[in-house]
Design brief:
With 96 residues, the protein is of the alpha+beta class. It is 51% helix and 17% strand. The protein has five helices and three strands; from the N terminus they run αααβββαα.
Length: 96
């Protein structure tokens, strides 16, 4: 998405905040809570959109749950820089 498309989308969402729900429905699959909480389900990263942020839940193999926002993850990636850091994070989430 280029800057012009992004600005257009932001403008549309500012005019019609309910449109944000339509965007989420197009890019996210709803998962019932019972399925999300199942450690055998195979999925360990979930997104919970709110009016102010997209909350990210990371379910770790040791039954801990990490909580952050999508914007914090993007900010971290911009500052992390090295692939070793990201590789370590991905391995720690997958339990391998």
């Amino acid at each position: 998405m280029d800057e012009e498309e992004r600005a257009g989308l932001v403008g549309e969402l500012n005019e019609n905040p309910a449109g944000l729900g339509k965007v989420y429905q197009r890019v996210l699959d709803a998962v019932p809570f019972d399925e999300a909480a199942d450690p055998e389900g195979g999925e360990n990263i979930f997104f919970y959109p709110t009016a102010n942020a997209i909350i990210m839940l990371f379910i770790f193999p040791d039954e801990y749950i990490g909580v952050t926002t999508a914007s914090e993850v993007v900010t971290f990636i911009e500052h992390a820089g090295g692939s070793q850091i990201m590789d370590h994070i991905i391995r720690s989430m997958s339990g391998e």
